[in-house]
Design a protein that fits this description.
heterodimer, A: about 180 residues, mainly alpha, about 5% strand, rod-shaped, B: about 250 residues, two-stranded antiparallel sheet, 7 helices, globular
């Protein structure tokens, strides 16, 4: 009930009501600390801790995976180098082979060309000789005609024969 | 009012009394007073609850706000204090210590708002001391068993029994009276000084002394003494309880 006049308790007294209320109030303020401040802060600290742990684990994993990648790359690089060398040497050999083939072909061709050329020369020579023989025969025929046209007298004729026999005889003596 | 009135005593008098009774009701033979102390405590609880809700709202694990820094600092400080005084196994005790310290210091500091200090009512520190008392003895029984607990009263010789009982009972009495006495004496001295200064001001006509002196007194009695008594109370509570525990506090 409400009081009509202002009433004070004694300066120093034990008041059961105040003690009970204070106990309840202390419980309330304790609950506020326990379930608002401490619970929430503990939860966030715990969460942060687990996050930090997770971050460390992730970092370790990333490091080991990076190292594995590095090794893999190194191996791949070594393989690539070897492969490049092989390709190079293969290409070199192929080029050498092709060059040799081209050279041999060229040589053969040159040889064939020379042979062809020499055969041609030969043939031309033969032709020229044939032509020359024909001309010589014609010339001889002409010469013979001219000689035949000149009259051969008896004396000359006999001397010619004698000369001829003598010549043969001399030749037989000498033999 | 003349200066002679001050020497004779004021007709108004300096009335030092307990807290105001706001409601009074009887349950059977027990009369229950709802006093100023209790209502101001409710205000403190409300303010603390709102403050804690604000401090702990929107907490994150990184890029934390300033108020989260404060919240985490409070929790860490109380944990450190409890662990260094009582050992790690009493870590769960920290929220009570934090609550008790806060209630006590705010109960003293409400005088700065012109309200009557909660701790200037003997019943408030008495209630806290009773909680400590119950904790001391329950801890003792839990550690040593009921036999070991009772044996402690006749230790080292049975003649010591009355002295041991007296010693145990004096603990809550001394704790509550120390707290109450310090706060209430500050209150009494402050009101005496205010009265004296107002009398001087009225007789001289210049308010040259009501500025300065009360501020310095308030600084000591309200801030320093309020903090000191709250600190002493929680330190004694922790010391008594961990002493009742008997085991060595682990590192």
């Amino acid at each position: 009930m409400y009081l009509d006049k202002v009433l004070y308790t004694d300066f120093l007294t034990i008041d059961v009501g105040t003690i009970l209320f204070t106990l309840i109030n202390t419980l309330l303020i304790f609950l506020a600390f326990r379930f608002i401040l401490f619970k929430r802060v503990d939860a966030i600290v715990e969460k942060r801790k687990s996050e930090v742990d997770a971050t460390y684990t992730e970092a370790d994993q990333a490091l080991s995976s990076a190292n594995a990648d590095k090794e893999q790359y190194a191996a791949a690089m070594a393989g690539a180098k070897q492969e490049a060398a092989e390709i190079l040497s293969r290409a070199e050999k192929k080029a050498q082979r092709e060059g040799d083939a081209i050279l041999a072909e060229a040589r053969q061709e040159a040889l064939a060309a020379r042979e062809r050329a020499s055969a041609e020369t030969e043939r031309e020579k033969a032709q020229a000789r044939t032509e020359l023989q024909g001309e010589i025969a014609d010339l001889a025929m002409e010469l013979a005609q001219k000689i035949m046209e000149k009259e051969i007298n008896k004396a000359d004729h006999e001397r010619l024969i004698d000369d001829f026999i003598e010549e043969i005889g001399n030749e037989g003596d000498n033999a | 009012m003349q200066f002679s009135d001050f020497l004779k005593g004021s007709p108004d008098g300096i009335d030092v009394h307990g807290p105001k009774v706001l409601l009074h009701f009887d349950i059977g033979n027990v009369s229950i007073n709802l006093t100023e102390t209790v209502v101001i405590s409710w205000g403190i609880i409300l303010a603390v609850t709102l403050l804690l809700l604000w401090l702990t709202s929107g907490m994150k694990t990184r890029n934390i706000s300033k108020r989260q820094v404060v919240a985490e600092w409070i929790v860490q400080t109380v944990y450190d204090l409890v662990e260094s005084s009582m050992g790690k196994r009493w870590r769960r005790f920290a929220p009570y210590i934090g609550a008790l310290f806060t209630f006590s210091i705010l109960g003293s500091l409400v005088s700065l708002l012109g309200l009557r200090s909660v701790t200037a009512d003997f019943n408030a520190p008495l209630a806290w001391a009773l909680v400590t008392f119950v904790m001391i003895h329950s801890t003792n029984i839990r550690t040593n068993g009921i036999g070991g607990y009772l044996k402690g009263y006749v230790d080292p010789v049975p003649v010591m029994l009355p002295i041991n009982i007296l010693s145990e009972l004096s603990t809550p009495v001394s704790m509550s009276l120390r707290h109450f006495g310090n706060v209430v004496s500050g209150m009494v001295i402050t009101s005496l000084v205010y009265f004296a200064l107002s009398v001087i001001t009225k007789s001289v006509g210049i308010a040259f002394m009501t500025i300065g002196i009360p501020a310095v007194l308030s600084l000591y009695f309200d801030l320093f003494s309020g903090f000191m008594q709250a600190f002493v109370f929680i330190m004694l509570t922790m010391a008594y309880i961990s002493n009742a525990d008997g085991r060595e506090p682990e590192a």
